[in-house]
């Protein structure tokens, strides 16, 4: 394990702070019935998800997107998650296919308002960089983002994001060009929390390594209420959200949904990046995560970016570091 503290001033893509937005349905009675059914039949607790068998999936090619000459072909894709149609993006390198196929990077995006998120262009620099480096990339929109279907219950919808990635993971063996034995994952901000849940619920050998950029690492539901509260400016809104959550999940069960309680389940190498002056995701959250990783003897590398808010001046240098880290862990 090693910790690396850099003094370079780095910024990332500006991505809106992640919030949790309640969803409403015009047909409230029907939605209530659906929500109760979802509550009774779908697992959202981390331990339950870990013990659940997710079936093999197929990825549907909806249409070709851009072709970046001598680099990669982009595709709009869709797949099923808990019966919901989820859209996403796949890039396949424009290179000779290796004997075992291309390694794969799953990209878990951070919070962008669902109606402003763009399947093709959001995180385009990230998926393009990995694809140019010889990786197939898969980026799920998540349920409720852009044109993807969603649950009407916003509490369960938010908790179900990791399920969208679990299903996506099961589709990789059915991608002809993919090396299913060398799959990696990138997660930023809210996507960092999704990634941590994924790492805590995967079977052995499903993933080789993970990159976390300013991950949301806090107990549930503070991990979302923190952003609603906005330094106390929206305390009333945060309390309303907490009350809504309590109408579905008893407080005594909160730890069962929290990434902070299952770090011991992580069994793959992690590279972690965070700016010390991050005004969106607290730098302290990564320090807390590092402490837990260290406590449980996990394999991690921590890059701290002094006086940095996000990560953009050296954005591609950080991505290059991730590519090097992933390639080192290819087997």
From TrEMBL:
GO terms for molecular function: carboxylic ester hydrolase activity; serine-type peptidase activity. The keyword Zinc does not apply. Residues 129-330 form the Peptidase S9 prolyl oligopeptidase catalytic domain. The keyword Hydrolase applies. InterPro entries: AB_hydrolase_fold (IPR029058), FrsA_esterase (IPR050261), Peptidase_S9_cat (IPR001375). GO terms for biological process: proteolysis. Keywords: Hydrolase. This is Prolyl oligopeptidase family serine peptidase. It comes from Candidatus Mcinerneyibacterium aminivorans.
């Amino acid at each position: 394990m090693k910790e690396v503290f850099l003094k370079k001033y780095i910024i990332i893509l500006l991505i809106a702070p992640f919030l949790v937005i309640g969803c409403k349905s015009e047909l409230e009675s029907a939605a209530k019935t659906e929500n109760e059914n979802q509550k009774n039949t779908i697992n959202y607790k981390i331990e339950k998800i870990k013990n659940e068998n997710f079936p093999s999936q197929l990825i549907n090619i909806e249409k070709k997107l851009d072709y970046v000459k001598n680099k990669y072909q982009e595709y709009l894709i869709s797949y099923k998650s808990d019966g919901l149609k989820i859209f996403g993006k796949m890039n396949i390198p424009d290179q000779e296919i290796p004997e075992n196929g291309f390694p794969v990077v799953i990209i878990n995006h951070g919070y962008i308002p669902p109606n402003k998120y763009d399947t093709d262009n959001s995180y385009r620099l990230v998926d393009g960089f990995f694809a140019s480096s010889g990786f197939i990339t898969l980026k799920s929109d998540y349920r409720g983002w852009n044109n993807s279907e969603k649950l009407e219950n916003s509490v369960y919808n938010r908790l179900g994001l990791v399920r969208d990635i679990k299903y996506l993971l099961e589709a990789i063996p059915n991608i002809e060009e993919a090396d299913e034995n060398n799959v990696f994952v990138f997660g930023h901000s809210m996507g960092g929390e999704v990634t941590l849940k994924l790492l805590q619920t995967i079977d052995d050998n499903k993933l080789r390594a993970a990159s976390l950029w300013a991950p949301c690492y806090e107990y549930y539901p503070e991990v979302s209420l923190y952003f609603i509260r906005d330094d106390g400016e929206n305390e009333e809104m945060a309390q309303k959200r907490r009350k809504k959550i309590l109408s579905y999940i008893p407080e005594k069960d909160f730890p069962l949904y929290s990434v902070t309680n299952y770090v011991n389940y992580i069994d793959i190498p992690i590279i972690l990046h965070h700016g010390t002056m991050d005004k969106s995701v607290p730098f302290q959250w990564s320090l807390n995560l590092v402490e837990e990783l260290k406590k449980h003897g996990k394999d991690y590398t921590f890059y701290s970016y002094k006086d940095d808010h996000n990560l953009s001046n050296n954005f591609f240098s950080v991505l290059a570091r991730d590519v090097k880290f992933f390639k080192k862990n290819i087997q």
